[in-house]
Write a structure and sequence with these properties.
Blueprint: E1 4-9, H1 16-29, E2 37-42, H2 48-55, E3 61-64, H3 81-86, E4 91-94, H4 97-102, H5 107-119, E5 123-128, H6 132-136, H7 140-149, H8 157-160, E6 164-167, H9 181-199, E7 208-211, H10 216-223, E8 230-233, H11 240-247
Parallel strand pairs: 1-2, 1-8, 2-3, 3-4, 4-5, 5-6, 6-7, 7-8
Bound molecules: 2-phosphoglycolic acid.
Length: about 250
């Protein structure tokens, strides 16, 4: 049985006190969603300590939205994998399309970041996905395949065993446009096949999350698909009720 995961990517939203309140709200309402769903919250770096404190004693895990490609040293403004691990993070989102698009992250950088994450015991949530132009040109399979092959296929089988993947079509992120459940299933199954070609049967255990305007009203339909193992949630992760409501999608 693959893990069911609902992860909240708060992006650059909330101030520390608001983040702590949001985390407390999620803890308080946790029981409204099925027990078997693994919830992860990924606040900005600045709130990790406060949110970790708010999550204490709950079964909600903490993640960061990024980490540095280097171990430590003269890298002004960067935050290392060791630092986020020390604050209680178990997960780190890597390769989000906003990082690829606005901060020039390439497969080369992401290979280094993945290595740093694993070295500090963090589980990467590795994001892939095509933009609108690529989808319209029918190139989405090739784009996603390259994003997997250039990074994930460099992992050892031991590292791969812990990996979480998020498929996020860029045209669906923050736009209110969701991929249909069939579109998601089609590409999730394709991703699993690319993984299986490299890692064999272990690919059957990899959680593949869908991201892009996922909300309580469409989660159940998406999560009903065989290869959709949960969601990476942006906007709807900023309200405890909506975030947990998405987890309820597994109950339907
Ligand atoms: P969204 O963002 O849910 O606001 O579309 C998803 C993401 O970028 O992770």
């Amino acid at each position: 049985m693959r893990k069911k995961i609902v992860a909240g990517n708060w992006k650059m939203n909330t101030l520390p006190a608001e983040g702590a309140e949001l985390a407390k709200g999620i803890v308080a309402q946790r029981a409204t969603a099925p027990a078997e769903v693994n919830f992860i919250v990924c606040p900005p770096f600045t709130h990790l300590s406060q949110v970790a404190e708010a999550l204490k004693g709950s079964n909600i895990a903490l993640g960061a939205q990024n980490c540095a490609a280097e171990e430590k040293g003269a890298y002004t403004g960067e935050v290392s994998a060791a630092m986020i691990a020390a604050l209680g993070c178990r997960y780190v989102i890597l390769g989000h399309s906003e990082r690829r698009q606005y901060y020039g992250e390439t497969s080369e950088t992401l290979n280094l970041k993945m290595a740093r994450a694993y070295a500090h015991g963090l589980t990467p949530v590795y994001c892939v996905g095509e933009n609108l132009e690529e989808r319209e040109a029918g190139k989405h399979f090739d784009v996603v395949k390259a994003q997997i092959e250039e990074v994930v296929c460099n992992l050892t089988p031991e590292q791969f065993a812990g990996l979480v993947i998020a498929y996020e079509p860029v045209w669906a992120i923050g736009t209110g446009k969701t991929a249909t459940a069939d579109q998601a299933q089609e590409i999730h199954a394709f991703i699993r096949k690319v993984l299986a070609d490299k890692f064999g049967a272990a690919a059957a255990e990899t959680p593949i999350l869908y991201g892009g305007s996922c909300k309580p009203s469409n989660a159940a339909e998406l999560f009903a698909k065989e290869d959709v193992d949960g969601g990476l949630i942006g906007g709807a992760a900023l309200k405890a009720e909506d975030f947990l409501g998405i987890g309820q999608g597994f109950a339907k």
